[in-house]
């Protein structure tokens, strides 16, 4: 007989189960609650888009576009890409679905994303994000609102300790251009000592050298020209109002002048919430202002700001969460009472009590099994001397309620 091999899961995907799945759900539920407090509207977005949605908005030379996208031609010969991030698709929808009429528009979503990366702890090929965006708002208050929301989320998840908000400004277009010229001049002078990747970035995207994880580059990043010397008065004022807003809201932050972020579309505010509790994958939440993005998709200039956070990384900080025990367990000790058991548990659940039914395996072991599960109440159905017996063993706080439902 030939043995059929079970297909293996795809490298970099995860099957999330049990206490880890509970932590994952806790992150999503907490995010849903917080986004309602901040009045962000929920959106559901397609998992794939035309490839150009990402290549044009993220920038051809970014790591994500140049080496991490899952792109393929569909049966009609069109190049499609599994979304590597949310922002570009949301920006596309803003333009194609007439969402301009709702500006300023606050939206939130969550779901799976796909990047062809080297899988390791905290880094997967299918991962999940929560995401929040404010589109059509050019004022620094929008940046502040998003940052205060992120801060509250981390606190409500109970993981804010040891997580730091690192903040930077990339300035407006003029500041950025002047800084860029200075960076090119500086890195040209040490070109031979940079990593091969960074030598390449020097031509295509010098800012990204600041984001390099290669130790050869890091040595020079420390002494690189800083954005502060190139900020226009407008950019300085904008940044000042963001930090004042954060102080007013009581959100702690630290300045990190070398923080750039890996995508082309950022302007002014850029930020990351980082921790040293996750090893190399320490960035849990990142975002910034992307005033230039809409134009790259053929729209009118539209200011916008947003952030995204990896659910897996947040869930790792949350730690394993126990699966809740049932309020009630219904034990059918005699198979003749199966329908009575089904009716009883349906009634309990319709009243809002969580309940499990134990009605299989050896009848004599069913009650012991229920006791081991540690529910607040056990209802057992048995037949003694030809009579149906319904007995209840319950904690005080739930007894009366269950009694009312089963009598
Ligand atoms: P990193 O520097 O870790 O590669 P990034 O800058 O590429 O992160 P973003 O594109 O800003 O990440 O995505 C926002 C968040 O999504 C990250 O802070 C992280 O929590 C999460 N994230 C990004 N890529 C992955 C991945 N491959 N696996 C798991 N989580 C990820
Ligand atoms: Mg990355």
TrEMBL record:
UniProt KW ATP-binding keyword: yes
Gene Ontology terms for molecular function: ATP binding; histidine-tRNA ligase activity
Subcellular location: Cytoplasm
Gene3D superfamilies: Bira Bifunctional Protein, Domain 2 (3.30.930.10)
GO BP of this protein: histidyl-tRNA aminoacylation
Keywords associated with the record: Aminoacyl-tRNA synthetase, ATP-binding, Cytoplasm, Ligase, Nucleotide-binding, Protein biosynthesis
Catalyzed chemical reaction(s): tRNA(His) + L-histidine + ATP = L-histidyl-tRNA(His) + AMP + diphosphate + H(+)
Binding sites annotated in the UniProt record for L-histidine: 85-87, 115, 129, 133, 261, 265-266
Listed GO CC annotations: cytoplasm
EC code: 6.1.1.21
Chief subcellular location: cytoplasm
InterPro entries hit by this protein: aa-tRNA-synth_II, aa-tRNA-synth_II/BPL/LPL, His-tRNA-ligase, HisRS-like_core, HisRS/HisZ
Subunit structure, interactors included: Homodimer.
NCBIfam families in the cross-refs: hisS
Family: Belongs to the class-II aminoacyl-tRNA synthetase family.
PANTHER family: HISTIDINE--TRNA LIGASE, MITOCHONDRIAL-RELATED, HISTIDYL-TRNA SYNTHETASE
Protein name: Histidine--tRNA ligase
Source species: Croceibacterium atlanticum
Gene name of the encoded protein: hisS
